[in-house]
Structure formats: structure tokens, C-alpha cells
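Incident log, support desk, overnight shift.

02:14 A customer reports that sequence design results differ from what the structure should imply. Their input is reproduced verbatim below. On-call engineer (initials T.W.) acknowledged and began investigating.
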């Protein structure tokens, strides 16, 4: 009788765990990008000639920061003329370059910072495996990436579009083209690891880390 109760209790526990796993809503890659207030791109309303002139001014200003750079009078006069023409068109060159710097900083944050809202929670994420460590024929540590062959056949995605996954149980890798579901708790941990391929190695960076509880072939929920 006691044995029967233990069996029934064990079955109920397994059933409840399976229900919990199925109840986890999928987390997609856009969910891993931090939610930041966006800066409106002031360059979108400019025409190609104005953009070209701004590019010329930007290159000149960058060159001036180089030690030993001595611009000619002709170059200085040319830049002043471009700035004057843009100002006459209602374009504040200095303000545009200030906003340009803000946009560059924002894009860097969008690519390198984690989304605080997804940390320390259970997630079920679809993606592709890029092996980092093997044990026999099984992959025990890998980068989960949004596209097949990323970091090997193509450049690495941004650090917040990569998850370093540790899965001691290991998973048999059928192909880099095989999509999988990976389930586990997501943490913020900046890590770098080498990904080896036929003609070299690539050092890949991620801001997410997961100790996976389950890895399975992709199927839609």
C-alpha cells in the first residue's frame, strides 16, 4: 500500500512539473533587449547632400583630434563654408553632432546591456547551438544564438543577443541548422569564450548566462 502511494505521489509530481514546463511562455530574442527611451534620429529628415556635407565636417573634426594634424587654409575655409550653408538651411551642426553622440551611446546600450526585467527568472528560449565545450559527442556548453551558424559562419550577434548555456547532461548536436528550445533561469553575467571552427577561432561575448534544465528540439507551443 505504501509503495502504491509513493508511485502515485511520484507520478503526480512528474505530472505537475510537466504542466509547469508547458506553462512557461516563450521568451524571444527581442525580449532580451533592454527597454530604453529612444532618441529620435535627427538625420532622418536630411537629404543626401546635407548628409554628405555633415560627413565631411565630421571627418575634418575627427582629424583635428589627431596629434600633429595641420589643416590647410583651403580645408578650413571649405569646412566653414559647409557649416555656413547648413546653418542657413536651419541646421545646427553642433547640436546634430551632440545628438549623434547620444544616438551612438544608445545603440551601444541596446546592443550590450541586458534587459533587467528578464533576469533571475525561468525562461524558455528558442535558438540555435554554437558549441563551446564537448564531452564525447555531446555539447555541454554552448552559445544559444538567434540564427543558425552565428559566430561560426557569420559574425557574432550583439552580446545581449547571445546566451552562454551550461548543460552538463549534454545534448547530441544533429546540425548547426537544427533549432532547439532551451529552458532555465537567466542571469546577467558578462562572459567571453572561444568558438572554434575549421579555419580559426572567434572570441565571443555574452551578457547572459543560463544553467539549462532542459534542451529539446524546437517545436511550436
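02:41 Re-run completed on a clean worker. Output:
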Amino acid at each position: 500500500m505504501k509503495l502504491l502511494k509513493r508511485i502515485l505521489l511520484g507520478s503526480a509530481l512528474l505530472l505537475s512539473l510537466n504542466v509547469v514546463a508547458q506553462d512557461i511562455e516563450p521568451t524571444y530574442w527581442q525580449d532580451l533587449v533592454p527597454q530604453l527611451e529612444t532618441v529620435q534620429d535627427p538625420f532622418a529628415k536630411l537629404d543626401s547632400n546635407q548628409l554628405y556635407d555633415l560627413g565631411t565636417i565630421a571627418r575634418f573634426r575627427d582629424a583635428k583630434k589627431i596629434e600633429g594634424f595641420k589643416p590647410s587654409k583651403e580645408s578650413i575655409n571649405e569646412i566653414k563654408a559647409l557649416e555656413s550653408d547648413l546653418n542657413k538651411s536651419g541646421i545646427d551642426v553642433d547640436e546634430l553632432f551632440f545628438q549623434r553622440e547620444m544616438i551612438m551611446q544608445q545603440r551601444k546600450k541596446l546592443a550590450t546591456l541586458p534587459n533587467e526585467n528578464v533576469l533571475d527568472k525561468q525562461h524558455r528560449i528558442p535558438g540555435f547551438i554554437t558549441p563551446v565545450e564537448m564531452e564525447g559527442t555531446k555539447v555541454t556548453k554552448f552559445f544559444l544564438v538567434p540564427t543558425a551558424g552565428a559566430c561560426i559562419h557569420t559574425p557574432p550577434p550583439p552580446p545581449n543577443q547571445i546566451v552562454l548555456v551550461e548543460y552538463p547532461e549534454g545534448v547530441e548536436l544533429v546540425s548547426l541548422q537544427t533549432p532547439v528550445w532551451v529552458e532555465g533561469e537567466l542571469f546577467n553575467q558578462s562572459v567571453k569564450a572561444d568558438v572554434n571552427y575549421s579555419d580559426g577561432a572567434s572570441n565571443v561575448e555574452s551578457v547572459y548566462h543560463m544553467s539549462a534544465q532542459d534542451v529539446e528540439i524546437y517545436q511550436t507551443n
